[in-house]
Amino acid sequence: MNDPHYFQLSVATKEGDKKIFRERVYCYELYHQLRCILGDCFPYKLDGEVDKGGHPIIRKRKTPDLIVHKPGEMNQNLVVIEVKPISVKGHLKELEKDLETLQYFLGEEGRYYHAIMLVYGDGKQNLHETIRSKVASFSKSCGNRILLVWHSGCEREPETFCFE
């Protein structure tokens, strides 16, 4: 993603232009970019914000940001993804909620192989330590199957953190 619009949305205010994080704007562009890369020959499907309410096996009503799976086949659930802007460091309850969703989908009902917690924004070179330690803690409880991805800014390669 090279356009800064997808990292922070410009909003008109009485004081002038203000940039704010909007998770859905980032997620929808990420979905578009991933669909372009994966194409139609990729054996799995990428879906966004699939509400699992009413699912015959997954009992909790959870809606992850993105999933990579084979619809209709519980043994083909590849990756579940949650996305948060860097501003989540000031709202750790939101991060914990998303990590609980990832943890749930890695469990017996969701049966996903791996999970990704993607944090984006602000252009800094280092990810805030409270975010790293929170994700590491949840990953450890799931057999280290949660990968942390830090996308610090447009035209920057995402950085990956594995926990063991």
Describe the structure.
By secondary structure, this protein is α/β, with parallel strands linked by helices. It has a single domain, classed as 3-Layer(aba) Sandwich (Rossmann fold). Helices cover 27% and strands 26% of the residues. The protein has 3 helices and 8 strands; from the N terminus they run ββαβββαβαββ. It has helices at 23-38, 92-106, 129-141; strands at residues 9-13, 16-20, 45-48, 66-69, 77-85, 114-120, 146-151, 159-161. The strands form 2 sheets. Strands 3-4-5-6-7-8 form a 6-stranded mixed β-sheet, with helices on both faces. The longest helix is centred in the N-terminal third of the chain and has 16 residues, at 23-38. The protein is globular. The model has no long low-confidence stretch (mean pLDDT 86).
CATH fold category name: Rossmann fold
Main sheet makeup: 6 strands, mixed
The ordered string of helix (H) and strand (E) elements is EEHEEEHEHEE
DSSP E strands, number: 8
As a whole number of angstroms, the C-alpha radius of gyration is 16 Å
Examine the secondary-structure arrangement and name the CATH architecture.
3-Layer(aba) Sandwich
How far from one another are the termini?
Answer: 29 Å
What value does the average pLDDT take? 86
Helix count from the secondary structure assignment: 3
How do the strands of the widest beta sheet line up side by side?
Answer: 3-4-5-6-7-8
Q: Please identify the top-level CATH class.
A: Alpha Beta
How many structural units, i.e. domains? 1
Percent of residues in helices comes to: 25-40%
Overall 3D geometry?
Answer: globular
Structural class: alpha/beta
Q: Give unreliable regions as ranges.
A: none
In what range is the share of β-strand residues?
25-35%
